[in-house]
Amino acid sequence: MLHPNDFRSIWELAHLWAGTAPEKTDPDNLPDAVIDKLQKLMWAFLRNKIGLRRKSGVKVVQENLFILLFNLNRTRVRLANDVRSRQFGKDLLDSLFVMRSEVLKWCADEFLTPPGIWAADMVLTSGGDVPKLVSGRHRDDEINKQICQGIARALWEIDPQIHPAHMAKHRAILKYGNGGIYKDEDTVRGWINDVDPLKKERKTGRPPSVRYLLDIEKGGLSGD
């Protein structure tokens, strides 16, 4: 079984990401915000940015030439047809699950604000209310800390050599993790340092001037 801390169905995550409780929507008349998130998640899979799993944990296979020629990947074909025709079947989408770490990494790569329920380790209240954003940005320090750390972990999966001092200045950290609202650079740097995968190996002192795989200032991959 998939643990809800690490896996959510496309249907459920899209609703929570859009700030809507899944049980309160009409599948035949979904809010535009939910449709937008559903499409983003479905396209992310179709473009091989994230994987999908069934409730049993079995992965939905990605495309390959054999499957493409013989049209064997029925789940992928149905998702492709549904997202193009804007048809969103609850039964299918509620049976396909995405993984937290993959979604956070994809959000960082695409400079999307990640789902707060995962990025900040937030949970629904007993009344079923969905966590709210203030003007699209989290204001609470602890929430900002969790988001910054989640983005940093995802970026470090791409390039673990990025120094925490530089990671704290990454565009995604400043913009989507709200790192830019803190005038004291040591605050965000401290959060980032706590999850540094090479923390025990890095030398003290001024960070080295090296070329990273990621563009710290602009985001995305570094150019030639």
Could you characterize the architecture of this molecule?
- With 224 residues, the chain is mainly alpha-helical.
- The chain folds into 2 domains: 7-100, no CATH class; 133-224, no CATH class.
- 44% of the residues lie in helices and 5% in strands.
- It has 11 helices and 4 strands; from the N terminus they run βααββαααβαααααα.
- A 4-stranded antiparallel beta sheet has the order 1-4-2-3.
- A hairpin with a 4-residue loop joins strand 2 and strand 3 (59-60).
- Helix 2 (32-46) packs antiparallel against helix 4 (74-85).
- It is elongated, with a radius of gyration of 19 Å.
- It starts with 6 loop residues before the first strand and ends in a 30-residue tail after the last helix.
- 31% of the residues are buried.
Feature tags:
4 strands; 224 residues; four-stranded antiparallel beta sheet; 44% helix; mainly alpha
Number of domains: 2
The averaged pLDDT comes out at 80
Identify the overall geometry: elongated
Sheet of most strands: 4 strands, antiparallel
Radius of gyration: 19 Å
**Structural class by helix and strand composition:** mainly alpha
The strand order across the widest sheet is 1-4-2-3
Distance between the termini: 44 Å
The topology string of helices and strands comes to EHHEEHHHEHHHHHH
Q: What kind of oligomer do you see?
A: single chain
| Total count of helical runs of at least 4 residues | 11
Strand content: 5-15%
Helix content: 40-55%
Poorly predicted runs: 64-72, 121-139
Strand runs, count: 4
